[in-house]
Specification:
The chain is an alpha+beta fold. It is built from eight helices and four strands, in the order E-H-H-H-H-H-H-H-E-E-H-E.
């Protein structure tokens, strides 16, 4: 028997619309920053500025992914897509974070080469372009911050924007060091520091989205604890073949076989199911599938490791 709650649909639909509008504005701002910093990087000879431009370009791609994901995940369910497009946001988060780590790794390699062979840089252009990056990325991050609190897709977009604002701050400071002290090596050092920070900050979202794709048990869930509460329900003999996974960043799914002590009627099992429902709601699980069994000869362990 299954249970599914749709009570949050209209609430999330409103947020999808607002998130989509804010993402469009952020995309436009980041296109402007990217073009400006590419031109500034070429004119000044600053690799840190070009790396910031590359990061901003990855922001444009990331925000486009996020925008498309927001549009898709807000669609209604159909007979062909019974869960809708809920995992579109997870795919965007996974792609964004993975891309950011790859870009950062490439930049580290290039920065090491620049450290070994420093080149003259026009620090004034670096200062102006970095200031533009700070302003526009700061505005963009503020636009998506609210949505980032409840949505992993928006959180990955926010991470891109916030970290790029931080990198622009570093580039801004580096521009001063180059202009007033002639420290050209700062350009390469900043690029390495920024890249390491990006890898570190992207890993959490990458790992969280990967866990959802692999349908691992959510980190906040203890299957043993849930099973322990359910087997205490009057009439329940055993619970086995348990699966708990996340459909997206919000919705958890649960399925299990419930071994009963007697050959209960369906109406009696419904009473047991109400208590199971109460247990699962305590763990914030609102969609579940329970298969009732009585004297069935199958493997009774919590997790079924037998091949089928």
């Amino acid at each position: 028997m299954t249970h599914m709650s749709n009570e949050h649909y209209h609430h999330h639909h409103h947020h999808h619309q607002k998130n989509g509008k804010n993402l469009i504005i952020s995309i436009i701002l980041n296109v402007v920053i990217t073009i400006a910093q590419i031109i500034g990087g070429l004119l000044s000879g600053s690799m840190a500025l070009l790396s910031d431009a590359a990061h901003n370009f990855s922001d444009v791609l990331a925000l486009l992914f996020s925008y498309v994901a927001e549009k898709l995940s807000g669609r209604k369910r159909t007979l062909r897509q019974t869960f809708g497009y809920k995992r579109a946001g997870i795919f965007a988060a996974f792609t964004n974070s993975a891309t950011l780590m790859i870009v950062a790794t490439v930049l580290v390699r290039e920065a090491i080469e620049r450290l070994m062979n420093p080149k003259p840089i026009d620090g004034n252009i670096v200062i102006y372009m970095a200031a533009l990056g700070i302003l526009f990325n700061g505005l963009s991050a503020m636009l998506v911050k609210k949505g980032a609190k409840t949505d992993i897709n928006m959180r990955s977009a926010y991470l891109h924007l916030f970290t790029d604002m931080v990198t622009s701050l570093g580039v801004f400071a580096g521009g001063f060091a180059i202009t007033f002290f002639g420290w050209y090596w700062v350009d390469g050092a900043l690029t390495i520091a920024i890249s390491i920070y990006l890898i570190y900050s992207s890993w959490r979202i990458f790992y969280a989205s990967l866990r959802i794709f692999m349908q691992f048990t959510p980190v906040q869930i203890s299957i043993e604890e849930i099973a322990g509460k359910i087997v205490k329900i009057e009439g329940v003999k055993n619970i086995h073949h348990v699966h708990v996974w996340k459909l997206d960043d919000h919705e958890m799914m649960f399925e299990a076989h419930l071994d009963l002590k007697e050959d209960f009627t369906i109406s009696h099992f419904e009473l047991i199911l109400e208590q199971v429902d109460s247990v699962l709601h305590h763990f914030d699980i609102h969609h579940y599938n329970i298969q009732p069994e009585w004297e069935r000869a199958d493997e009774k362990s919590l997790i079924n490791n037998l091949d089928h």
